[in-house]
Amino acid sequence: xxxxxxxxxxxxxxxxxxxxxxxxxxxxxxxxxxxxxxxxxxxxxxxxxxxxxxxxxxxxxxxxxxxxxxxxxxxxxxxxxxxxxxxxxxxxxxxxxxxxxxxxxxxxxxxxxxxxxxxxxxxxxxxxxxxxxxxxxxxxxxxxxxxxxxxxxxxxxxxxxxxxxxxxxxxxxxxxxxxxxxxxxxxxxxxxxxxxxxxxxxxxxxxxxxxxxxxxxxxxxxxxxxxxxxxxxxxxxxxxxxxxxxxxxxxxxxxxxxxxxxxxxxxxxxxxxxxxxxxxxxxxxxxxxxxxxxxxxxxxxxxxxxxxxxxxxxxxxxxxxxxxxxxxxxxxxxxxxxxxxxxxxxxxxxxxxxxxxxx
Length: 359
Hints:
- This protein is α/β, with parallel strands linked by helices.
- The protein is built from eleven helices and 19 strands.
- It has two domains: 6-117, CBS-domain (Roll); 122-355, Alpha-Beta Complex (Spore Coat Polysaccharide Biosynthesis Protein SpsA, Chain A), CATH 3.90.550.
- A seven-stranded mixed beta sheet has the order 11-10-7-12-17-14-18, sandwiched between helices.
- The model is unreliable at 354-359 (pLDDT under 50).
């Protein structure tokens, strides 16, 4: 029997695992990687979060065998080389983790670059769009802006902010419009959250991307943009890493949205009936309201114009710049209607209880 470290056990998969099993291991182990071993404990392959998301976009299902997404040509170090050698290798190659094996190739441990660093402080700028009118949530939003509606005793926007801070992000810009003074009064400069917060203020409705043209300073590198009415458990670090690895100017998060046709769907050739499919379900990826943009994306904007994110992405693609899609399988909810708000409040204690530790 293999005596693996406790923290390693949750990352380990058998060769007969599914893609869903790999996702669960990555989520449980919180290291963005799963390790596939054979019956003798020999390391056969690795699977990363990015591997799975790219496979989902190719149409690979969650019930597919892990062999469809795993990498058999992986980088590893032997036990006699030591953990320091693994850290040096990670730094040299820009890796975040390297498996450690014995001389027979059996898995021993996993070296992780963050082991020495703890929670990594991330300088990536985060821009939160909080200027919407919240029309569909009236009368609740007649006195309170939608991002300040409480879920689990805290405003939606604060839950978003805390989730970013928990992952090491600290530099925020909040775009304001409707009842923006209530948001500014609550968050101030961000110091009570151990973060830095500044603001841009729309004098008119500018769409889901227009407020970016009001930024006083252009970000030095990729930055994250997120609507202020979403709750999610997605890893923003993985999202940014995916964007960089893709070499994209813009990355749009997408959610798989199933639609069931409530009738029997007819398939035919000409006038001849070929098949009837009873109440089929079709799935489509939809815009999830979270983005990563490289600074050059701002070149496609005109100061002060009304601009929605889909239009910005169309402009990016029109000049043959790369636009990528990051599929979200984690918890995600868009709080746009009263029933969405009710569901978020019901699900909050399970999904976001870790964010309730003090001010």
